[in-house]
Amino acid sequence: MEVGCEELPASFVRRAYTDLLENVTVLLTDAGVVNAPGLAMGTPRRLVISFTDLKDRQEDQVKEVRGPGIAAAFGPDGAPTKALLGFCRSQGVEPDSLRKDDQYVWATKTVIGRPTIEILAEGLPKAIRAMTFDKTMRWGSSRMRFARPIRWLLASFGGNVIDFDIEGVKTGLLSCGHRFYSPEPFEAKTFDSLISGLRDRKVELDPEVRRKVIVDQATEIAEGKPDLTESLVEENAFLTEWPTAIQGQFKPGFLELPEAVLVIAMAKHEKMFPVRDERGKLTNNFVFIRNSGEDDSVREGSQWVLNARFNDAKFFYDEDSKHNLEYFLEQTNGILFQEKLGSVRSRADRLANLSEFIAKETGAQGREVEFARTAGLYAKADLSTGLVSELASLQGIIGGAYARREGIFGSIAWAIETQYDISKNLDPGDCSGERASLRLAMADQLDKLAGYLGIGKEPSGSSDPFGLRRAATVLIDAAWMWPEALPNYDRFFTYAIQLYTDQGIELNADAARKSLCSVFASRYAAMLPDIRHDLLEAAMLGSDSVDLLMPRAVKVRTECMKTLGNDVAFIQTARRPLNILASARRDGIDVGVQNPYEQLNQDALESAEGLDLLNALRLQSDDLAAAVANERVSDIVRLVKQLAEPVNKFFDTTMVMAENPEVRYARLTLLHAVSLQLLSAGDFSKVVIEG
């Protein structure tokens, strides 16, 4: 099947044909007619799926259908009731053919399998309509929403048309070639004939072939080495149906612009590949991938477009060169961060203070503290520059370039430059600039989250207009990249809220913190998709706990739960103290929560096994604390598993909920001490045991 449409955005294509293949696979699997996996491919103008081994029809099935109860099926004289006769008519059987058991009557019937082509004709339009896109549209009088208008449908089973239509577009056996080179329709009854027919008409259906063509041709024609980044090659592969690489040149004088300006303008805005010389220095050559036209005319047009963009950039760059970052910082007084949260300039002061606070809390001293503070102060200054107003994607990058131009220390410039892309920090443990970058990114996202959540702008459903989920993702990534354990983000978040208060901006701190935990919980599920849901719940220790705001600890517990999650015997043991404590708290029974070892009266335990358990806890307490602090997963697992034997012996011999309040209090406090050690690995009460 081929779904032909107007040009899809490049970022939609791969996901679209994958989505279509999944929908049709479910259809065929449920129908029981598929023998082998299908194949999917696509270009901007077409989405194609193919199954090479389908049954001609479903197999006949013998089914038993339950009818009325015995009492309702037969009268006192044993004659069939109206209820039974109605059931027989609905199933197309005679009363004499029914089977009876102790409770019901049953009809045995043979369901004749449907032809596969009928199943496809009924199900394919549903599969197409069920596709999802980030943005959709309607066209003409159509009520259907799709990424772009559908223009033709090819659907063939064994060379025969699968008959259906979508919004007036009827299926056939015709496809279309390249829009400009060979637009006339042609017949294709099989997948192979479609592939070959399209190639004859300058359409390469296989995206992997298009990728290879782009890489090979760009490498061959470039006078130098093109920057063939994976993302840009992928984008060009889904912008074209018949890619052809050409080389062009822009005016050499534009090489005076910051390299980032040139690269981003070429790669991000014009989808061109920059070209470097043998020393890695940018040249004035570029490679452009055309989909149609003649080389010379396309080259001339692309050169004109690129030179015009660089000319605008140079104008703004020259104007910006008349001022320094301090000037641009003051200009942000006129830029609103958010109506209730003040200007970008007031935000700069908060970022400076918050970055400094985070630096001190994460072990920075001397100049490193100043790096963080200065980076925070000037982080958003480039928002008022002409170059960023022209090319918004240069935010941060231009700030870093202008900082270097002024001779500001390199670590500060790096932090400003990479604040929106912390993945560039490859070794923060050994580089002060990379640590400053991560601290600034933390401050930036914490300030945003504190402000927006504090005024009630929590994301809901698929709506997240302020990018708060992404902000939480950056914080989690930053914590995972940090060379050692970080303090709980709750401490930084509290300070971020205080900085708003110091500026006279009141926020709902409690609601903001609750929302922050909710946002973090949702991000772990998205960022750790391979972790079983119940094990992730166990590692998070609850969806509303501030423990969620320690991403490294969550990840450590996740690794522990991956090891322990299938140990049914241990999980059953670990659940016992956790469940009893939870029940006691629900009933309002006192437990020694704070410093349980100090509150616990050993004599009141009145249990030799209880004393043994207490001694086991004390013996490994320091080792377990060190293992948690140093994130040694194997040691955490080993130490918590050592509790299994003394815990089981305690429960086998001791009644926890004793009538004597003093004894009960001591035993519950002991179990609280046990639970604290177990929770180092995760909340085992949330683990699902199969069966």
Our measurement of the CA-to-CA distance between the termini, rounded to an integer number of angstroms, reads 43 Å
Helix content: 40-55%
Unreliable segments of 5+ consecutive residues: none
Number of DSSP-assigned strands: 19
Kindly report the average pLDDT value. Answer: 93
Derived structural class: alpha+beta
The DSSP helix count reads 28
Which of globular, elongated, flat, extended, rod-shaped describes the shape? Answer: flat
Oligomer: single chain
Radius of gyration: 33 Å
- Which sequence of strands runs across the widest sheet? 2-3-1-7-11-10
Largest sheet: 6 strands, mixed
Strand content: 5-15%
Concise synopsis of the structure shown:
It is built from 28 helices and 19 strands.
Describe the protein's architecture and organization.
The structure is a single chain. The protein is of the alpha+beta class and about 700 residues long. It is flat, with a radius of gyration of 33 Å. It contains 28 helices and 19 strands. The relative contact order is 0.05. A hairpin with a 5-residue loop joins strand 16 (about 275) and strand 17.
